[in-house]
Amino acid sequence: MTLPIEAIKDQFLSTLRQQNVIVHAPTGSGKSTNLPLWASTQGRVLVVQPRRIAATSLANYLAEQCQQKPGQRIGYAIRFEAKMAAQTQVVFATPGVALRWFFEQQLADFDVVMLDEFHERRWDTDLLLALLKHHGEHRLILTSATLDDRALSAYLTTKALTSHGRTYPISSHTFASDARAMPSSQDLAARVRQACVYALDNSGADILVFLPGRAEIAACVNACQDLPAECISLHGSSPLQEQQRALRQGPQRRIIFATNVAETSLTVPGVECVIDSGLERRTHLRKGKTVLGLDAIAQDSMRQRMGRCGRIAPGLYIRLFGEHAPLLSTTPVEVEREALDELVLASACAGIAVDDLPLLTAPPGSSLQRAMTKLQRLGAVTADGLATALGKTIYPLPVDADLGMLIHNMPSNVLRQAMIDLAAAIATPAALFSPPSSSEREQLQAQLGEQYALCDLALHIAVVRGGAAQHILTINSEALSEARTYANYLRHAYQLPELDKAARYQHATLVEAIAELNPHCVYVRRDNRRGSFANGEDEVRPAKSSLLQHSSNAALVLATFSLAGRGKKHADTLATMCAPMQLSQVRQAVPYDTTLGQCYWYVDEQRPEGEIRADIIHSYAGVELGSSHQRVDGQHLSASVVALMRDNQLFAGSYERISQAIAQHNLYQAYHQQPAIDMDADTFIAERLHSLGVQSQEDLQLIEAEDLHYQGIDPWHAKDFNERFPLQVTLPSMVLNIEYHFRAKRLIAHYHSGERKDPPKRWELPAWSGLKIQYKKASKLVDIR
């Protein structure tokens, strides 16, 4: 069968000999299978596929077409698996593998690099394109189904070739209450079943249902099991056998329930009908974190999905949302909606600071800065944006940078083994086991120890290593196999024994080592209804799957999962891998804050001259960890001096005199219509101590009360002014505080103390010529004449 892409073969080869080439062709036109073979006439070809399932499936398909086994002329390389040799002419690989190869030798083994499905605009393919453009040693092929070719052509200074593909008429049907109804997850399984019944009656071949994720796929498969068709699941983690069922037609009619993996990366044969939920799981950026949200697809994605029918015969497109739903026109690119830690580290390891790399879409500056700050804190990149030795070591590891740092910096190989096995569990996308019930927790505690019933870290390490926990928990065998593959890969990288020879470790020692290496992982419980924990920057709450008890005061958190909240800036972050900690352990691990509590002037037989002591309060993330009673020096000395002066335990009477002098100075300024002095007694004393060079209590013993005298008004003006406008007036059996309002030409004499009940007489008061005088006691205000 001749595929539509054949129409541009000669033009493609002619262009490729001269320059880079962009090929715009719809899904199913044959670009992913034909272009690599054509390009191999000009050298060895690397085809970068966004998803593992597409890389392996396409390689297997092409190898079969060439009547060879994968790894001969056609091969592939994905994480933990590669079938290729030196003579392999076309290699399909995921972006992560391609980036690591670029880091190692700038892809010197390849002449042509093809970035397939580039319109998905993943951050890793954007970065790879920028690196290849900067390097300038490869011929580039970019394929796109929906991308704006003008911007891409200008970026690469080349032209785009277009293959229009083969299409049949597509009719559409809508299951929605309103023409503008947006995609919704409400009653999704029931609505999908209704659409499947309609499709079985109104179309003649296989049905492809687009859903946002594995949970929705499982629910819809369950709802449609009794329909007269074979139900198949297709997503990134589908077992190989299930993938093969989806990609090969059989004698029975099929309903394939798929995520976006079937939207662009794979062509599912035999499809005449597409049912579109209009939903996808898309990442967003919330407070610097990548969060996952359930979103309506954009119009470009809708066109992609619609294009999956009408390839082999007239098609039927069924939408579960309104025909005129106000969808976005295009899907936002990843560099604008995800944290950029991996991008920054990958670029740094390639020898180019990301700021010096012209990406097709410039990332937000705030996202780049957050990534730089985190990676510098981990010690993975320099201030110039280049990789350190640690960064180059941990980048190739199949785990996040923070986990790689912990593995590399563990103080012993025994703890490194435990950290590797834990990192392997975290790196595995699916859960290794179902959350234990209360009875299972009791069994874990009885057979393995308390930490296995309370600590996610300990239990996951035990499950990865095998043993008693497997007999108690409901294990996901596929996820466990993947985790063990991660663990053995990492163990081999550090020349450590394999899992079956794992060394025993001390749980408390591991927790303390992790906390010391990365204090950012230490969280303390907040006093709020959400039962959340905080580390001073982020707030999390334990996921339902976590073993962490609600009574825990603190926790070590190594893995989180963030969901987009209702607001554009809100994110709900769930902690999925936790270890309980005591507040005393937190004090040992984190750089906590200290604040001054109660201060004392302490005298005993050993210190007859006396010294300042205080309760120093230790806090972290706004939570008090405890306090200590100690001699005061350093950062808290001036504050403790102020507190003792305020209580007249030190330099008795000085604090009141300073306060009065400052108040009189401000009154002087107000009288002369000048700005007020931005100063109080506390600030003045602290600044004065600093100017006097007081850094210790020994220095404090060398100064007198007169050294702290406040002089705001010239002495020859102060005496007269203070007599004319006193702040306090003492009369027989009465003390008054005076409040001046010079602009209003009045003052208020406030009752302060004394036994006298009657208001003062005018003749008893200072002259205060030109000012109206009022007397106030409680809420009663009277004029004094």
UniProtKB/TrEMBL annotation:
Family matches, as Gene3D superfamilies: 1.20.120.1080, P-loop containing nucleotide triphosphate hydrolases
Residues in Helicase ATP-binding domain copies: 12-165
Pfam families: DEAD, Helicase_C
Presence of keyword ATP-binding: yes
SMART domains, alphabetized: DEXDc, HELICc
Protein name from the UniProt record: ATP-dependent helicase
PROSITE patterns: HELICASE_ATP_BIND_1, HELICASE_CTER
Gene Ontology MF terms in the entry: ATP binding; helicase activity; hydrolase activity; nucleic acid binding
